[in-house]
Design a protein that fits this description.
The structure is a homotetramer of 137-residue chains. In chain A, 26% of the residues lie in helices and 42% in strands. Chain A is an alpha+beta fold and 137 residues long. In chain A, strands 1-2-4-5-6-3 form a 6-stranded antiparallel β-sheet, covered by helices on one side. In chain A, a hairpin with a 2-residue loop joins β4 and β5. In chain A, α2 runs antiparallel to α4. Chains in contact: A-B, A-C, A-D, B-C, B-D, C-D. Chains A and D meet through loops of A and loops of D.
């Protein structure tokens, strides 16, 4: 993300991202942050390939989960994942460039539901839904 | 797994595991394999810590997903994950030693449902359910 | 639905609806049908109240499921629910008028993912996601 | 349930069941209640058949949901469904006699996870997982 964009981005989510060693170690790049919204990019490397010669679903999950974590922390108080589900729509291979877009669907009390779509170009490769929980004040 | 145990383990799942660079790169150890069953161990390292100082849910997912992938490939034909869900039951921290146990719940046609419980000692830290799909004959 | 609207609606979904005794017995009204889209209305009656004095989640599920079934049958070949999940966002009470809107999210091979939001006025009361499977050739 | 069995059953779940007009209107019979456990039976009637000549998935859900609600209320404080998912494993038809068995999987804080299997004889027809939330004291 350009520093100009960083200035306008929600501080709570940015702080979380800056401290998120795990996501950056996987080469994830934060592309955009907005209210209840985040877009993250990742390229599939050798280390992410599983026993079927395909990208381990866990890495696709991790990309989606990062977009979810960012999107649900754009409003301030620390918010964590309570539960998530993912459907694997198309196989992902070495070298594929994936983009995950997370978007708030609804919020109620301390809970929230966020949808994340993971795409390679225009093709959807996974659909993820995350349930968030905001930690007590 | 001891080599004696390897001899008795389902060959299809073992082959998959041997080719699974991603899971071993995370330090996962296969402890036991049986019919529709797998147990895998992983220690939480620095690289797995996220922005809240906790283990990134994605790594807990990946451990559960590996136990699922192994369990659903113990019967022969190549079987992949179609969809998964995970509930995060307790926080996981740096140094925690996690054990994931995956077990077949039901099979129907080319589909299967597997449950994976992730524990630290006796405490459950995550419950995972995976839906598998066996690839064409 | 007005007969003028019926003329423009996808025939496959309409036929299914006309044969769906169960949904009509619950007083559901089909309000709109489009490509991968359906909107259905239902009022909560005495018979739908559960042991906590609230609408049984099963009836909210059934309304969402009907919108899902309609939306995923708008394209022709018979399509059934393979799996669904629902999150209950707000309590629903006797007399509440609920509207479920189902919308295709993605399709791949014989599978599809549809999202259904159930609202009372502007307030979301449940979020549902359905996984569909199109039958034989 | 025989009155002898009622005497030994958890009072909180029994009270809930006695007030649950909806479940009894569908002909559900409570067969057994224990700690974190419930078994409920239901026969598929004409009114439960959907547009494909099969039992509406919503009624299978409702049966599973009732077993879940009972099982998660066996320990006292009022507990409600927060979210549920169901996989439809085999078609269900008019006249089928279904039995749903719900069992606690894990509890943490005010949350719980319960698994419900719905069977026709020995054959599994649906697998359900419910997430419960105990209401504040």
């Amino acid at each position: 993300m350009l520093s100009a964009d960083r200035d306008a981005a929600p501080a709570s989510a940015l702080r979380m991202w800056d401290a998120d060693v795990a996501s950056r170690a996987l080469g994830m790049e934060l592309e955009e942050l907005g209210d209840g919204y985040a877009r993250v990019r990742m390229t599939v490397t050798d280390a992410m390939v599983n026993g079927h010669g395909l990208c381990h679903g866990g890495y696709v999950f991790m990309l989606a989960d990062s977009a979810f974590a960012l999107a649900c922390n754009t409003e301030g108080p620390t918010t964590v994942a309570a539960a998530c589900d993912i459907a694997f729509v198309a196989p992902v291979r070495l070298g594929d460039e994936l983009v995950a877009e997370g978007r708030e669907r609804t919020r109620f009390g301390r809970s929230g539901i966020f949808d994340v779509t993971v795409r390679r170009g225009d093709a959807v490769v996974a659909e993820f839904r995350g349930h968030s929980r905001t930690l007590g004040t």
